[in-house]
Amino acid sequence: MVIQIHLLTKKDIRKEYLEKRLNLPDDVIATLNRELLNQCQLLDYSTFRMAHIFLPITEKKEADTYALVHWAREAYPKLQWALSKSDMRNATMEHYLWKPETVLVRNAYGIPEPAGGLPLLPAEMDLVFVPMLAFDKSGQRVGYGKGMYDRFLKECLPTVTTIGLSLFGPVDAIEDVNANDVPLHMVITPQTIYDFKKSKEC
Ligand SMILES: Nc1nc2c(c(=O)[nH]1)N(C=O)[C@@H](CNc1ccc(C(=O)N[C@@H](CCC(=O)O)C(=O)O)cc1)CN2
Ligand SMILES: Nc1ncnc2c1ncn2[C@@H]1O[C@H](COP(=O)(O)OP(=O)(O)OP(=O)(O)O)[C@@H](O)[C@H]1O
Questions:
Q1: Residue 148 sits in a domain of what CATH number?
Q2: Which residues constitute the domain of residue 133?
Q3: pLDDT tens across 103-118, in order?
Q4: pLDDT bracket for residue 200 (50, 70, 90)
Q5: Where does substrate bind (predicted)?
Q6: Which end of the chain is more exposed for a tag (fewer CB within 10 A), N or C?
């Protein structure tokens, strides 16, 4: 039997998956987000103390993470949350504690950011939820192409757990993975939880 693996570049995948997401009608997006939340609720977060999260760019129909945090604040009251402010010129992020009372302001890219608060270091995160346009069957991801999460994840401790959130399933393989790319430990989709740590151990 011949198994064909489709290799695609990040540039092609980025274009295809952004279009695919933007073309989804709002009711389908709402259903996928509900299913994604259900999958997220299946994991046990009790070993984590500080979780970093992104808030969605709604114009880009990113995964809705508000509902996840809303649920987790009730289900895991000891778990604290961190949010970032982006510096697009340097492709870097600064991190702040996200309390329920934190004021959020949308930046020029439509990303809700904390107006201020207690600054945090990457080393303080033990769980990071990662945005993406697509991922592949080995846990490599494609984002908007600035490498901001690759830079951030490199600064986190090796003990950090990374979980990508995607409204779609994986592509076969990303052709142009490079040394800066940080593969994800897990990806949650509306249908499945992919655990790349486990599959590597097999
Ligand atoms: N919600 C969310 N927050 C996030 C990310 C993300 O993917 N999603 N990022 C993940 O890294 C960082 C922000 N990265 C971004 C990179 C590009 C664009 C963007 O809109 N780019 C324009 C072109 C910009 C330009 O070069 O002028 C575009 O794609 O149309 C937005 C966010 C940090 N925060
Ligand atoms: N740790 C790093 N240090 C310096 N440059 C980096 C680092 N990580 C990524 N880059 C650079 O950033 C650029 C974008 O990388 P890539 O195409 O992998 O982005 P992406 O993962 O799709 O985007 P993002 O992480 O912003 O969502 C590349 O030119 C890459 O070399």
A1: 3.40.50.10420
A2: 7-201
A3: 999 999 999 999 999 9
A4: low
A5: 55, 62
A6: N
**pTM for the complete prediction?**
0.95
Residues with CB under 6 A from ligand 1: 54-57, 62, 86, 93, 109, 111, 131, 143-144, 146, 148-149
Ligand closest to CA 149: 2
154 is in an annotated binding site: no
Contacts (Cβ under 8 Å, ≥6 apart) of 70: none
- 138 closest CA partner among 180, 190, 182: 182
Identify whether 2 is part of a domain: no
Ligand 1 atom with the smallest distance to the CA of 149 is: 11
**How far is Cα of residue 139 from the mean position of the Cα atoms in its chain?**
12
- Binding site membership of 144 for ligand 2 (Cβ less than 6 Å): yes
pLDDT (tens digit per residue) in 73-128: 999 999 999 999 999 999 999 999 999 999 999 999 999 999 999 999 999 999 99
φ, ψ of residue 65 in degrees (nearest 5): -95, -10
